[in-house]
């Protein structure tokens, strides 16, 4: 009886965890998601957002990959309380990319709400950079890092004039430390509404990112709606779904459009 129970436990573990078996040719396409609360996800996790995502895996605290399900920021090493984590853009992004390409994906979601870009820079006291780098290196043993998706700026929206130089430094350092100077880097606009009218100028600045950083892209937040009201900078779950699909559209063009094996759906 003990042997039967032990075998059953091993079977459950093998199904639940992608162990990165070197004997298989299947490798994961790895994506890093970092930023503040809208990247972490604050959308409400209703029943229609509780499913596991087919062919998508999430990096765990032990360095394994498990079937991905919301909240995807649950294993962030820098996150706020688990109860605050909800639907973010990585959910619909990964669903869309996995379906369009037929590839298996690995996600590293390591965001923290309320953070300034200054805290994300290499050498900053908060060590968010080091944590992201450590986790993505763990994930890269399962496959190839395809892109970094960055959604941040609500904490810096009143100072668009100083943001670009910091973002350039962040991207340069990440690409150098990850050994890929041409790694695609995708940013997303913050909510169009804001209590201090700072969103428009900040988003205008973000739209110029591709002009200042090679192989970078900017995703629109147009027509997205707030989680609660326009005093709230967070996107609703349904808006996060739209945002994630917009990220996927850009990443597909940047990373897969020239691959003959990718679906044309």
What report would you give on this structure?
GO terms for molecular function: hydrolase activity, acting on ester bonds. Keywords: Hydrolase, Signal. It comes from Bacteroides oleiciplenus. Helix 3 crosses helix 9. The chain has about 260 residues and is of the alpha/beta class. It is globular. It has one domain: Rossmann fold (3-Layer(aba) Sandwich). Helix content is about 35%, strand content about 15%. It is built from nine helices and seven strands; from the N terminus they run αβαββαβααβαβααβα.
Question: What is the strand and helix layout of this fold?
Answer:
Elements (H helix, E strand, L loop, with lengths): L1 H15 L11 E8 L1 H4 L15 E4 L5 E3 L21 H13 L3 E5 L7 H4 L7 H12 L3 E9 L8 H18 L7 E4 L10 H8 L2 H4 L3 E4 L17 H19 L10
Parallel strand pairs: 1-4, 1-5, 2-4, 5-6, 6-7
Antiparallel strand pairs: 2-3
Helix pairs in contact: 3-9
CATH topology: Rossmann fold
How large, in whole angstroms, is the Cα Rg? 18 Å
Strand order of the largest sheet: 3-2-4-1-5-6-7
β-strand percent reads 5-15%
Shape: globular
Give the number of domains.
1
User: Unreliable segments (pLDDT under 50, ≥5 consecutive)?
Assistant: 2-15
Task: Let me know the number of strands.
Answer: 7
**Helical amount among residues, as a percent range?**
25-40%
Q: What is the typical, i.e. mean, pLDDT?
A: 90
Indicate the CATH architecture: 3-Layer(aba) Sandwich
Q: Strand count, sense and closure of the main sheet?
A: 7 strands, mixed
Protein name: Sialate O-acetylesterase
Keywords: Hydrolase, Signal
GO molecular function: hydrolase activity, acting on ester bonds
InterPro entries: Carb_Esterase_6, SASA, SGNH_hydro_sf
